[in-house]
Amino acid sequence: GAGVSQSPSNKVTEKGKDVELRCDPISGHTALYWYRQSLGQGLEFLIYFQGNSAPDKSGLPSDRFSAERTGGSVSTLTIQRTQQEDSAVYLCASSLAEGRGSGYTFGSGTRLTVV
Amino acid sequence: LAKTTQPISMDSYEGQEVNITCSHNNIATNDYITWYQQFPSQGPRFIIQGYKTKVTNEVASLFIPADRKSSTLSLPRVSLSDTAVYYCLVGDGVTGGGNKLTFGTGTQLKVEL
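^ Those are the sequences you sent over. The predicted structure of the assembly is below.
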């Protein structure tokens, strides 16, 4: 597609359940990022994938969070045993490896609410 | 990662020029300066990127002084639709600004009639 696609757009889950969030990056973009944005806050970096390199997981807040990227394209962010503090908008972005001048392209995000 | 400081909020009126200044005193030699715009319920959108002097595109201009310790995003003749949060980011330019860009809380611009 023309942009970064994320699904679902909204997710309500019960505390303790696992959730999977999906990101379809722009075709040809080798770099993919996940960010989290809590209400009224800036974006918090979670994880970064670049081509076939090992992902940079330094932003993941706990071991309940994990992400994978299959075939260098689609990525899934998984949150296990969700907690109320996980409620936020989860944003995915992609870019060309040499993205100077064009920056990231973000999706519209998945709004996760843990009740 | 270079830390950035920008005003929390700004108010303007339609037709005015708006200048948002960002401070980044510890910017590194390889760092580029990138600005994003975010509307409610949407992901940030790339506006403009620069390294030094002045960059202009169809949306905005970016002014960067010689010491690169600050930058100013200039929005000409704003309209109501420019009401949004504007983020200033600094990072190396290899992947469009760095692989671990830090988004602060940004500047909430409110444009009124």
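DSSP finds no helices and ten strands in chain A. The two ends of chain A are 33 Å apart (CA to CA).

Shout if you want it in another format.
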